[in-house]
Amino acid sequence: MTDRTRSAYDQWARTYDTSPNPHTFLEFVDVLATLDPQPDETILDAACGTGRYTSVLAERVARVAGLDFSSKMLRIASERSPDVDFRIGDLRERLPFTDAAFDAVLCAQALKHIASLGPTMSEFARVLRPGGRVVFSVTHPDMSWDGYDVREPGAFVLDEHADIWHHRMVDYLEAIRAAGLFLECTVTVVVSERIRHMLTEQSFRVVAGRAQILIVRARRARDGGRGR
User: Fold this and answer.
1) What structural domains and CATH numbers belong to the chain?
2) 45: phi then psi, degrees, rounded to nearest 5
3) Collapsed DSSP state (helix, strand, coil) of residue 45
């Protein structure tokens, strides 16, 4: 991730958990359901931010590690979950973990900050055990922002401060295939009552039912080989 993007998240860290964020609020339940964490598993929360998902995973699974490139985000995450193994790292680079270290990798709302998805997905595959899975969430490639108006816009507008790439569905699928993973499922999360309180009433009437989040689950073959 670029220095500009790192600086943006460092600035945002202090208010990240209190800023209105329809994306993270809308997707949370479905992301966890798609990940389906099990008590005996070891899971990596890649681009964990302030630990929104990490803290929940720490209560459900045997071991959790969190990775982020923003030291200020990680400071908040470690205060929230002091027993979690948090490390600083960039998703564009080799992850600071051994091969086949995790049963699952979660990456929520971070791939938009990466220009080339291939190396990142390959690193996710490398740290997965045979049969392990990666679950990631992104803004749905088909989402339309026309008529989408929040009641209380946050003081920090991410796309004004960070570098964002708008990947197509085919880009995600190609990165999965090239990493030797196979696509297991996709989930489309639509604008629903979960975020009605965040949108203006007029906006909600217009955009309700519109695709907003895409969740993807891909898996490494159980024999350790390449996916189909």
Assistant:
1) 3-220 (3.40.50.150)
2) -95, 95
3) strand
Q: Give the DSSP letter of residue 112.
A: G
Taking 3-state DSSP, the helix, strand and coil percentages for the chain, each rounded to the nearest 5, stand at 40, 25, 35
Q: What Å distances lie between residue 100 and 105, 121, 127, CA to CA?
A: 11, 14, 4
d(CA 224, CA 128): 9
Q: Half-sphere exposure (CA, 13 Å, Cβ side) for 70?
A: 24
Tokens of 94: 């080799």
Question: Can you give 56-109 as a three-state secondary structure string?
Answer: HHHHHCCEEEEEECCHHHHHHHHHHCCCCEEEECCCCCCCCCCCCCEEEEEEEC
Contact (Cβ atoms closer than 8 angstroms) between residue 82 and residue 88: no
Q: Which residues of 17-27 are buried (b: 16+ CB within 10 A; e: fewer)?
A: eebbbbbbebb
pLDDT for 64-93, tens place per residue? 999 999 999 999 999 999 999 999 999 999
Question: Tokens standing for 133?
Answer: 């899975």
What was the pLDDT predicted at 9?
A: 73
Q: Does position 33 have pLDDT exceeding 60, yes or no?
A: yes
For residue 201, give the 3-state DSSP assignment: helix
